[in-house]
Amino acid sequence: MRFKHAYLALAALLFASCAAEEPDPFAREDKFILEIGPMEDQISLFDFYDDVGLPRAGVAMADGFFFISDGGGRKVARYSSFGDLLFLIFNDETNPEPSGLRIRTIDDGLMTRWAYSFPFRSPGRVAVDSRRNIFVEEILPEERHMDDDESLALLGAVILHFDENGSFIDYIGQGGRGGLPFPYVVGLQTSADDEIVVTCFIPGGRDVFWFDENGSPLFIVHVRNETAPAPPGHSDFFASIDSVFPAPDSRKLFVKVDYYREVMEPLTGNLVGMEAIASLVWTLNVESGVYESFAQVPFFEGAGSEWGEAASIPFSMIGAARGGSLLFSFPERDGYAIMRMDSSGGGQRRGNIRIDPSRLIFNSFHLSPEGILSAILADEWTASVSWWRLESFMRDG
């Protein structure tokens, strides 16, 4: 009997030890810190050469490497997961010549740390494909902006294409290489077979431009509030396209639509507000243009002093991982509440990622196809490049 008790105690100890070694998917790991500033190994965020001076930066993580665009510094950098600056593409009119990197020319051979000069104006969102080709959103000068009479959108953005070594290939517009500028870009991702997806905001919805790996146009998808599918069980509603994300492994779009209805004052009949009645993610087949299925997205339930009376508020969508795994968030006082579900509505689970409020002056997130959530988190003096290993959290079951 004494031996049996000892065996059970040992088994319990081993189980507890294994459980303790299981990584916490919600634990933030700060990979490295960048000081705010103009030097090669710093990040500016704010553009001191621009009267607007709004923070503008993007991050993408691939194979453990971080690709960071710095709109204020007018540069794009690639870092190792330890924070080593591996290469830099920079505007030499607004940046000092890098002291720790060699300026590269076309004839240079194999180099491990190097820099290229390129006349960036305001780089923003960034994406990387499996070849490590880099795609960067760029804002054109105002004199090159155009008005689109059909969509009523202002056209003023292009996508710059660089190869894995940082050499400029060409720019991509609506019609492919050298095409008309895009409307306001709200999404830049790569999908299956290194296809490039550019999502643009226009009045009343989104336009999604889908290109092959060389930048040749494949599809244009028009997603509109007025043509969004009706939520089951509701006939009186207003549809609002919240976000559109491509699947990283198929020609599908995940379209999150929030639905509202008018709230009237019973005695006077006056309109007093709008009430959220449903939040759905529709799966849209890009090739056929057909909405194939939908999933109900639960509301974030707010209560207490922060929200006043209990309120049902739609989550925001962060992105999509492989296999139709979707990630949503809602801001809280000390970070974000997050929720995972698959595109059929199953596999729902929730968690919280903690971020010091001082590091929320500026943040930019990226969800990798594997389910790793990366971010730039900035305070007044520094920006941390961090990630959350959510792969197990994002897997179904």
Write up what this structure looks like:
- The protein has 397 residues and is mainly β.
- The chain has helices spanning 2-21, 391-394; strands at 29-35, 57-62, 65-70, 75-79, 85-90, 102-103, 114-117, 126-128, 134-139, 146-148, 153-155, 157-162, 168-173, 176-177, 184-190, 196-202, 205-211, 217-224, 238-246, 252-264, 271-285, 290-296, 300-304, 308-313, 316-321, 325-332, 335-342, 349-354, 362-367, 372-378, 382-389.
- The strands form eight sheets. A six-stranded mixed sheet has the order 2-3-4-5-7-6, with no helix packed on it.
- The longest helix has 20 residues, at 2-21.
Q: Share of helix among residues?
A: under 10%
Say how many strands there are. 31
| Overall pLDDT level | 87
Outline: globular
Radius of gyration: 23 Å
Assign the structural class, choosing from mainly alpha, mainly beta, alpha/beta, alpha+beta, or little secondary structure: mainly beta
Number of helices: 2
Straight-line N-to-C gap: 39 Å
| Proportion of strand residues | over 45%
Query: Largest sheet, if any?
Result: 6 strands, mixed
In what order do the strands lie side by side in the largest sheet? 2-3-4-5-7-6
Task: Name the poorly predicted regions.
Answer: 1-20, 303-308
